[in-house]
Design goal:
This protein is of the alpha/beta class. It contains 7 helices and 9 strands. The chain is globular.
């Protein structure tokens, strides 16, 4: 199904580290008040536009999906890695998780009320980003909110080990919020706000808030 080498490498890497990664992020939301605030704002925005199903794309072990569900959002998760989906189903048995790729997002047009992609765009090459964001725009209903979280920077690096010392083979792409915002606008989104987390540190992250227009 996935023929591009980088997709195969990403899937295999996260299958390998799924259990360790789940342990690594288990308390991440509880430790970060600005992250919690961003998710609360997203949930409020979904409700303000009438509610409905929300897609967590690149959901990993499902911790963000579960947090949104606790906020009263009808969230479900999609991830490239079957291993991650297995862990998500194990840890959050009452929620819906599916295996899928954001490069071939298998959702009907206008079928979700909100869409969130946290730390999952970091493995997408630049030349694939417009198509991926185009899929996000296609499946999100008009007026629906979009929220992206990603690493800030101007470089890419190969990650060969992680989460318990297991082998990985994925490129991590750091991007400037202005570049991601340009891709969003080109796809038909209205960019409403951005938040920088730990802006004075090398490992800073950005959250972009946008809306289907």
């Amino acid at each position: 199904m996935w023929t591009d080498d980088w997709l195969i490498d990403t899937r295999t890497s996260y299958d390998t580290v799924a259990v360790g990664y789940a342990d690594f992020v288990r308390e991440a939301i509880a430790r970060q008040q600005y992250v919690r605030a961003a998710l609360t704002l997203f949930a409020d925005s979904v409700r303000a536009t009438g509610g409905g199903p929300v897609a967590d794309i690149g959901c990993g072990p499902g911790h963000v999906t579960a947090h949104l569900h606790a906020l009263g959002v009808d969230a479900f998760g999609i991830d490239l890695s079957p291993g991650m989906v297995d862990v998500a189903r194990r840890d959050h048995p009452g929620l819906r998780f599916e295996v899928g790729s954001m490069t071939e997002l298998d959702l009907p047009a206008g079928s979700v009320a909100g869409l969130l992609a946290w730390q999952s765009l970091i493995h997408i090459p630049d030349d694939e980003m417009p198509a991926v964001i185009g899929h996000f725009h296609r499946v999100l209903r008009p007026g629906g909110p979009l929220q992206l979280l990603f690493h800030v920077g101007d470089d890419s690096r190969l990650k060969t080990e992680g989460y318990g010392g297991h082998p990985m083979n994925v490129h991590v792409h750091r991007r400037q919020p202005s570049q991601v915002a340009t891709w969003l606008r080109d796809a038909g989104f209205e960019v409403e706000a951005q938040m920088l987390l730990s802006p004075d540190e090398k490992g800073s992250q950005a959250i972009l808030f946008a809306r289907h227009s």
